[in-house]
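Q: What structure does this chain adopt?
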Amino acid sequence: MEKIYFRWKAPMYLWLFLTVCIPFTNQAQSVKRQCISNYGSIIASDNVTFNQTIGQPYGTSALYNDGTSVLQGFQQPVVFTLVVVESSLSKNISLSVFPNPATYTIAIKSSKVIEQSLIKAVDVNGNQVFSEAVPDLHLHHINCGSWSNGIYLLTIYDSMQHSQTLKLIISK
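A:
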C-alpha cells in the first residue's frame, strides 16, 4: 500500500512544484521599433548617399514624385524654396508719408492717383487705430493727434487689394 501511495504522492508534489514555482506565461523579451535619435551619419560617394540615424532600426527608402523625395520615418531632406513676391502697387507707385516722425498731422503722397484706396494704421501690438477709405488718393492728410507716441505701420490698399506698408513714428 505504501508503494502505491508513493506513486501518487510523487507526481502530485511534482505538479504542485511546477505550478507554484514556474509561471504559466512566457516572459521572453520582445523587440519594439522605436526611434530616439540624437545623432546621425551620412556616407556619400559618387552618386550614392546613405543616411542613417542612431535609434532608427531600418534603412529608409525614398519615394520620388516630380523631383521631390519623401522618406519614410522622420528623416526628411532639408529643402525649401524662397520666393519673393513684390506687390504691383509698390512696383508702379511711389508712396511717401511726411513728416516722419510726426506730431499731430501726416500727409500721404502718391506719385499716381490710386482709385478706391483704403488706408489702415496699426500700432506695434497689432491694434488697428485708424481706417479710412479714400476714393482717389494722390495727397491725403490724416489727423493723428489722438494717437499715442510710438511706431505705427500704415498700409495702403488699392482696388485690387495690392498693398504697400510704410513705417510712421509719432513723437509729441
